[in-house]
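Ephrin type-A receptor 3, Chanos chanos. Tokens?
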Amino acid sequence: MDCKPLTFFLFLFFISLTESTIYPSNEVNLLDSKASQGELGWISSPSHGWEEISGVDEHYTPIRTFQVCNIMEYSQNNWLRTNWIPRKSAQKIYVELKFTLRDCNSIPLVLGTCKETFNLHYLETDEDQGAKFREHQFSKIDTIAADESFTQSDLGDRILKLNTEVREVGPITKKGFYLAFQDVGACVALVSVRVYFKKCPFMVKNLAMFPDTVPMDSQSLVEVRGSCVNNSKEEEPPKMYCSTEGEWLVPIGKCLCNIGYEEREVSCQACRPGFYKASSGNLACSKCPPHSYAHQEGSVHCDCEKNYFRAEGDPASMACTRPPSAPGNVISVINETSVILDWSWPADTGGRKDVTFNVVCKRCWPGPRQCEPCRGAVRFLPRASGLTNTTVTVADLLAHTNYTFEIEAQNGVSSLAPALRQFAAVTITTNQAAPSQVTVIRKDRTSRNSISLSWLEPERPNGIILDYEVKYYEKQEQETSYTILRSKGTNVTLSGLKPDTTYLLQIRARTAAGYGSSSRKFEFETSPDSFSISSENSQVVLIAISSAVAIILLTVLLYVVIGRFCGSSKSKHPDEKRLHFGNGHLRLPGIRTYVDPHTYEDPSQAVHEFAKELDASCIAIDKVVGAGEFGEVCSGRLRLPSKKEICVAIKTLKTGYTEKQRRDFLSEASIMGQFDHPNIIRLEGVVTRSKPVMIVTEYMENGSLDSFLRKHDAQFTVIQLVGMLRGIASGMKYLSDMGYVHRDLAARNILVNSNLVCKVSDFGLSRVLEDDPEAAYTTRGGKIPIRWTAPEAIAYRKFTSASDVWSYGIVLWEVMSYGERPYWEMSNQDVIKAVDEGYRLPPPMDCPAALYQLMLDCWQKDRNNRPKFEQIVSILDKLIRNPSSLKITANTTSRPANLLLDRNSTDITSFRTMGDWLESVRTLPCKEAFSGVSYSSCDTLAKTSAEDFKKIGVTIVGPQKKVVSSIKALETHTKDGPVPV
Ligand code: AMP
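Tokens:
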């Protein structure tokens, strides 16, 4: 046997073989001849057929090969059988053969039949059969031919011709099998035999683990469920298919890393410190946003630093934020009783965009800072809270009032940190407001060419009405041309009008604050040119005229007869009563006259004429607020059908009353019901048909003026006090215009509402004085509030509007002294005596000189010298219009405890020099009176002119009077003791 050439080519071949020893990962070897270090121990049959040969590769690693080349002999049948190969889980196996084969043509002198193929067989068995080998048991797999064969010259050129053939076998069902190589006369070297099966190898796909999987033998795929890697969860069940070729196909579904974990190197790993992951998903962990931290691994969120917060709904990726700083640069622009507040965006928005602003309104009083939240009437435009712009308009504030507005910037985390909230504040004082609308206009007289009208002052004048603008035009002209008149008073006559023409008219009031809004349009008609009577009506008209003439004649006749025979008898006709109660007052056109309910024979008739009967079911009583002469006074609510509920005061008549008491009780309603004025308490109605009998009036939140002032001692500005006084004077003017004499005008009988509007109340007749605890019996038997009553009324019951003016002077004093008791603790007798002798109350502390002068004027002994209420209103208006006139006070020292001024000796305007004046007041201890100024003796003082007096600050009547009062006080102290009465 010529082995030399074969061995030679085998050596060359090994180089190539070692290059292919790395197998694909999806192939699992069952047999690899090359891996065997020792003898393979395969069975060769016959034994001189296949021959096992040892060699080395280029690394000198030994390998085992088989060869056969019996080409010189005939009928070759050489078998080589492998050892038993267990199939494991494989069903389908692959056989890879690497071999070389000699080209028959290249062999000279071939004796037998030279072949260029060999056969591959297999045999399945459940167990190793050892050396037992029977050819016929084997099944042929294939005939293996060389793709490349080699020749002798090839060997000389050292060209390698290695063949690799792979055959599939299967399905194998038994536990193992043998392979056999049958040579039938070829020259072949079997370099390596590898038997393997294919699998789908372990794989992590979409964070799901798929195990090693052996495919099926058939064409079908194996469906494999994956399991999620650690720290992840299925989003959709992960699945893949293992193909027969050991390949993973069609991945479906996936797993997602849990919160706090991110995907790294096909696994889910915890977020590093300083990072977080709030949602599951295959996103990377995020860095903690500003002002937050995460110290732990695997954080699902970052915690906020101190004083930083996260609002509900803030995403974890958002920076932690804090409440904004206060808004800056608050600017207020006051327009009458509204104010526009403007501010700038806070310097620090806290890191958020959802900044809004809230404005809180507080009403404040001077002195020790006292504020309370503004009431509901104040309007914010567009609103008070949740403002997105840096401006708001606050309307419907009270005039001349101090307010503080707190503006807070808020953002989404403000509510989490109340302690860090900041606001900016601004304090303002409102101005005067324009007057409200004129609502009541009356036609007093019409002629062919003129119309006389009068109207009521607007309910809220908000200052002194300078004049009224009356605009009118012909209705059919549609305002294309119109006429404007101005009127100082509340009446006007429009003249030069066309006869029988309809005119439209509007009135608006003007104050220093400007025009109020115009009234609604009122329609008036002038009289026709003449009566034109159509023929068919003439007879009827004639009869009507004759009847009217007859009635007038009859009435005149009756009046004369009755007047003669029943001169003083009471009449029931209101018009006649007007004559009776005219009281010598000048009536204004269009203003009604007061009717004394006592002139009614049946007083309940008067009640029903002037007061509305209310159904008790419309009244809800809340609480008792005071005690009246006839029963309790309660606060409550009145809801009339289809009207808004209002707060009311309810006076009740206690049970067990006499008929006279009932009459007297209701007489107040009969009187009140006749009045309609913003400074007179308004009657809502009466309940007489059920019990308890009630009088229902508007509710005055601040109760009676005297106690109100005592409660708020020194808390109002002079303008506010004068405003209140003006209201009272205006109400009294209305009463006196109507011919009503109050008789008991005193601060305790004035009520104050929440807007500081004062209204005159407590009306009655004889009972007024019965019910007043201040009223005392006079020597003549009547009961009179001595300290408030004019001397002539005390002396001989001469009650007139002029005596009301005296009382008004006392009210003026009460107001300016914040509810001090007139004449303090002096007895009534002493008061009567002192006043009679010409002494008057001194100016209250810090009282403007002009107001004290007004008091003194009201206390003129001769009632004809006292001002009328109309004049008082006008004086007060002038003072309000010129507030600097109120700065000059009537005294500079503290309130005198028990001093009275002698009016007769204090009119210093009549003195040429100070010497004259001092002489007149019999000044004695001047030193003390003028201590602190540069006057040291009476002599120097006496030589001082009025001009000099001015230099030390005593410039006007009031303070000089105060000086006088001090001097007089000292004098009286020296002479007679403290009180000169
Ligand atoms: P009079 O019977 O008017 O003297 O009332 C007694 C007290 O009841 C008064 O001093 C007030 O405190 C209170 N009062 C009377 N009328 C009203 C009202 N309209 N609103 C509020 N309080 C009132």
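The radius of gyration is 61 Å.
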